[in-house]
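I would love for you to help me understand the pair of lines that follows before we discuss the fold together.
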Amino acid sequence: MTQGVAERPVAEKASSTKPKTQYVYSFGGGKADGHGKMKDVLGGKGAGLAEMTLAGLPVPPGFTIQTEACREYMRGALNPEIDAQMYAALGRLEKLQGQKLGSGKNPLLVSVRSGAKFSMPGMMDTILNLGLNDEAVEALAKLSNNPRFAYDSYRRLIQMFGDVVLDVPKKKFEHIFDSIKHREKVKFDYDLTSKALLDIIAEYKKLVKKETGKDFPQGPLDQLVQARDAVFRSWENNRAKTYRRINNIDDSTGTAVNVQAMVFGNLGENSGTGVGFTRNPGTGEHKFFGEYLMNAQGEDVVSGVRTPLPISELERAMPHVYEDLKSITQKMEKHYRDMQDFEFTIQDGKLYMLQTRNGKRTGLAAVRVAIDMVSEGLITQEEAIHRVEPNQLYDFLVPRLVEKGEKIEVLATGLPASPGAAVGQIVFTAEDAVKFHQSGAYKTIILVRGETTPEDIAGMEVAAGILTSRGGMTSHAAVVTRGMGKCCVAGAGDCQVDSEKKELRVKGHVYRQGDWISLDGTTGRVIAGQLKTLDAQPDDPDLVKFMSWADPLRRLKIRANADIPRDAKTARQFGAEGIGLCRTEHMFFAEDRIGHMRTMILSTTEKDRRDALKKLLPMQRADFVGLFKSMESLPVTIRLLDPPLHEFLPQREELLVEIQHLEDTKPRSPKLKELRPLLKRVQELHEANPMLGLRGCRLGIAFPEITEMQARAIFEAAVNVKNKGGDPHLEIMVPLIGSIEEMRNQAAIVKRVAADVFKEKGSTVDYMVGTMIELPRAALTADQIAEEAEFFSFGTNDLTQTTYGISRDDINNFLPAYLKLGIFKQDPFATLDQAGVGQLVKMATAKGRATRPNLKVGICGEHGGDPESVKFCHRIGLNYVSCSPFRLLTARLAAAQAALEEKQTGPNLGGTR
């Protein structure tokens, strides 16, 4: 394709009178086709550029190709009108600038960037300096009187274009670049001479020819079309898909493409580039925050290749630019009424704004910014509730290192990029992080990198913490980990990371894969060894104030899953309004009880079983007393024994090995007399599919004495607590019900025991008997079951298993493939399947309430702490959700947001979104 604009294709005249879709929106010269509220169409970046242009800010002109073009491209049918509108917009840009793309004495160069509706930092692709070729680079060198700048810009284009568009591995370019730096004996990129840069360009072009079989494209229009399409393709790259899955972003939205006239931060020492935030994204402090580099282009700051300077240094170096930047960004924050993340370039002392968007921030910062903006009059309290993602509140619960009494060796201090603490075994690649996580070889993982790249996203997801030797507070590692709520120490310059040798060298130590280190993401310290961590206390004044705004808004009650008094006390600290699931089986695994439990299981007569259960009764009663005291007058839902009995016995394979070893070495050992009957009973209890075998209510029906013992322990404990001034409220839950007959059988035993205890003790307590809906048949016959059950609690973990026919213990064998192929958008055991399992929950709730209008309904699976699942439960009218104590803050905020959304949009009777 030729270089001249005049030779670009001319669109054929449309044969239809149907209005054309506007695919391309121009901005520049104080005018813009779009505006800031068009994020669905223009993406966040394109909408921001249009809005800034309309506000009269110094924005380089350009145009945005809207998201529908991406969707068409992904469908394989790009409308020819897109090219026609793109060439027309380019013509307007050339006229506005008085330049021609990649030609003439003053060639126009452009950047080509992605920009989706939702911020996805670093997940898609960017190309800078597009339009340069062998002729244009010489024109740029002559025009700028700075050959080094021109050649540096060209080598950057070839590398980015080669990597992003032509799929030439980035490492091969870096190898050439590092080799010539070594040859020239220079440490920094900007110390390379013009001649050295020309050598790099020549080697880069040879690499492109070798890898692709074609020369690097010289036609500017050819470059533009290929770059645009590559950005569209980047929507489907693995890192972007992983990021969307983690952040629940719809795969169908697509990305816009922003084409913008280049301004150059690498023109010399009077030029530079940077990124910043109007407030501190780590703490929320109302303080101008950011980083910059002189004589650099944008990717140098965010990639971590060079460690940038704090933006406060710009005030000393270029005070007029600093003041302009601060003034502009403060105006942008007031305009958007949210903390802004911005990019800027300084070219020959003149400031240009390249982007603004609502800034990513930690949970600590999100709460503080929301509170401060309410006090500043920028937003209302209700708006503040939506400014914090429910999962971000986990930041208030991040662990801290236990240092008291420990000998601390600080290996290095980097930047506190994301708060909290992480202790784990180090790995050096994302692939190894995923491998060791999936195999279980490493319990917790610290991913150690020179700097992270978007390709590391899968490894970052499974790591407990991230350590980088290069990069700043706005590097890829910092931005992404803050969004994930993970601990990160960035820019620890004393750390030498060799990912090929899998070594970390620091302070004379050599750490290899699998060695332990500790990170403090709040202070930026890297500490030798395996320290202990201390749980956070959720009594932060900002958090308390924020939740005092959120809690009154919600209708859903939030309970906790807690089995022992310690967990119940923690749950109360985190705001639990009751216990939604107490798993009584967990009480039997204690060392002083497991023997009695096994005696009961091994018993062959009812009398022997009852004798063993009598020994367990006082232990279980004491547990319940502790729970009732901890929860005071709040409801406590106790699930009767649920798992198969074999789970309380040794593994069959282990017994066989031990018996064989004793028979071979000590055939007269008295232990054989103990092990052989145990093995016999284990074999008798062995089931091909124990999760669908003798468990749940079936245990209580086959061995009613088990239900009787548990019911007696519960009621005796409750009466004891009441007689000492307590006010316990019991909900006794029968698990794995599939029919009204099963429910009736177990409810009768519970009620009979209750009557006996009340008569014996001369006192009564409030209680209800209900069931856990875990089987599709229970959902389908919920109207019948509600004749006997006084409440429903959906065990959504098992209901998901039995609806999908998928074992939650085995799903990881194929889940990665399902997620990659888009068969599953999310792990169905992490986020409730609203279209399938959710409809069973909705239907069963309606059927149950048709029989019993005041039926109390909740869920108690892990879905109870997932924000989207909580909102679904609100929409279908459940009374409560129950989750682990450390998900309570998340559930409370999600329930408040659900109530606000309903207030703003009206009820969603279908439940799903």
Observations:
- DSSP finds 33 helices and 32 strands in the chain.
